[in-house]
Each structure stands twice: as C-alpha cells, then as structure tokens.
Amino acid sequence: MAAAYSQCSADFSLQNFPCREKSVMLDGGRSFESANSTLHSEVAMLRAARTARAVRTVHAARSVRPARLTRRLVLSLAALTLGVGVTGGSAHAAAPAPVQSADFGACPALSELPEGADPGDWRCEAMTAVGHLTLGRIDQSLDKGMAITFAEGTVNGEFRQVFGAMTAAPVRVRGTWLEITPRYAGYFDFQSNDQRRGELNLKFGVSGPAVPSGCSIGTDTDPVRLVLKETAASTVVSQDPLVVAFGVADNRFTAPRTSGCGRLGPVLDAVLRMPSPAGANSLELDARVGLRGYGEADAAASSVSGLISGISR
C-alpha cells in the first residue's frame, strides 16, 4: 500500500494521474483497487481546496476599493510630514543655458490683436527660461525650462498686450512621487519700468498616484503672484532673429494652500508646507526672448534699444 501511494503522489506533483488508468499490483499480484479509489478521492479534495483558495484570493483582491487605496496613500504621504523622504538641496545647482532659438508658433494671431491694432506697431515675443524654484518645501531646478509667448504694441497710442501661451515640463518633487507643473494663471504685464521687469500670475499643478486632476498650488482666482525684478541686464545674443538675454527673480511672493485636491489636500499641504509665506519662496530665471514684428521685418528692431535698457515700451 505504501508503494502505491508513493507512486501516485509523485505523479500528482506533475499533474499526471496514471493511477486512474491501471491498478497497482503488490504482495504477490493482489490488486489494490480500493487504495486507488481512496487516493483519487484525496486528490479530488486537494484540487477542490486549491480552487477554493484561488477564488477567495480573487474575491479579496476585488474587494479592495479606491477609498482604501486612497487611505493608504494618505498614510504614506503623512509619513513624509515627519521628515521622511522629502529633502531639499542647500545649494542651487547651476542651471543650463536657455536655448537660443525662438519659437514663434504660439504667437497670438493677427485676428487676436485688439481692434484697431496696426500690425506695424505690434510684435510677438517668445521667451524661453530655465532657473530654480523654491516654493515651501519644494527646492528644485527648472532645468527642463518653460516657454511663454505674447504680443505687445499700441492702439491709438495706448500700450496693450495679448497673452499667447505658456508651456512647462513637469518637475519631480525630490524624495516623493509627486510632480508639479508651472501654469499660467490668467494675468501678466511685461511692460517694464524702473521698479520691475514684469508681473506674472502662476499656479502649480500637482500630480501623482491618486492625486485628483485639477489639484494645484494656486488658482486663477488665488494665484502665486510674481513681481519679477531684473538680476542681469539685457544683452543681444542674436540679430536674426533678434534674441535678447536677461535675468529676473522674485523672492517676496507668497503661496496659498493647495486647491482641488480632495481629501488629500490637508496631507499635501503638510508635505509641501503650504501655505508658504513671503521670504520662504523664490523664483530665479535666466531668460532669452526672441522678437518678431507683425508688420515690417524691422518692426522688432526698432524697439530694441528700449528693451536693452530694461523698458520694453
């Protein structure tokens, strides 16, 4: 009997069942059909138990709800508030130089200029910039850069501007799986004067596992308001197309709490240290701006002396 069970057990491990096809003869030729029957019953019980366990495992996996996953994410993010994972560099790495080429593809169309605008009095400015952002607990190089296009000119002697587009690459928040993306927040004024080089409202989209779409630091109605001051004087780096380089920065702006983040909002605020007061934030940019007139080819060049002095009009 022991020999019969040993043979069938070995075959069972290979998913082969010869005991169903033949009887095992031992002890002088006596047949142990009853042993075979018992063995088949035990094999069937084992296979049924294995199937039942698999079904229970599938049901348990299906019962995990999104809310449960969200709770796990909340706990993981909460651990970061205790200082785990998120670190900021004490020194800013040198940003790579901005690209020299100017992309005018996102310039406002002539039809988007104000009524009564003379194309000969208008130009498009295409800016690319790299730099460094400190925002609450975020301390990251913007080495992938951002791009802004807009048009400016006069209508009946009054200075006017029209926004074109802004694009920026997502930036990973060091030590986390979160990313932030700078975005335009509905207001700009790049007419320079002695006090500032320009103003720009931003919001920073926050993305990551289980983070709702629309989660951001700042909104169109409660933005991060930048007042950019010149840190490096304008210099001409190209004549065709006309490209001017300069540096700007703001280290006095505030940042609000996150918005549109659902139940993760309070946790993200704690992780990112939001809201963040003036003095805890800064944006430094090395920028290059390409200029192209809407009218005559030399329309942009006619105003370059004003731009070099830091006053665009």
Number of helices: 5
Structure summary, number of beta strands: 13
Evaluate the radius of gyration: 34 Å
Please indicate the percent range of residues in DSSP E strands (runs of 2 or more).
35-45%
Please, what is the average pLDDT?
75
- Class computed from helices, strands and strand pairing: alpha+beta
- Shape, per Cα inertia axes: elongated
Uncertain stretches of 5 or more adjacent residues: 1-39, 57-70, 78-91, 93-100, 297-313
Largest beta-sheet characterization: 11 strands, antiparallel
Run of helices and strands: HEEHHEEEEEEEEEEHEH
Portion in helices: 10-25%
- Kindly, what is the distance between the CA atoms of the first and last residues, rounded to a whole number of angstroms? 104 Å
What secondary-structure arrangement, pairings included, does this model have?
Layout: H1 2-13, E1 25-26, E2 30-31, H2 33-62, H3 66-80, E3 123-135, E4 138-155, E5 158-168, E6 171-172, E7 179-189, E8 198-207, E9 216-217, E10 224-239, E11 242-250, E12 258-259, H4 265-272, E13 282-293, H5 304-308
Antiparallel strand pairs: 1-2, 3-4, 3-13, 4-5, 6-7, 7-8, 8-9, 8-10, 9-12, 10-11, 11-13
Helix pairs in contact: 1-2, 3-4
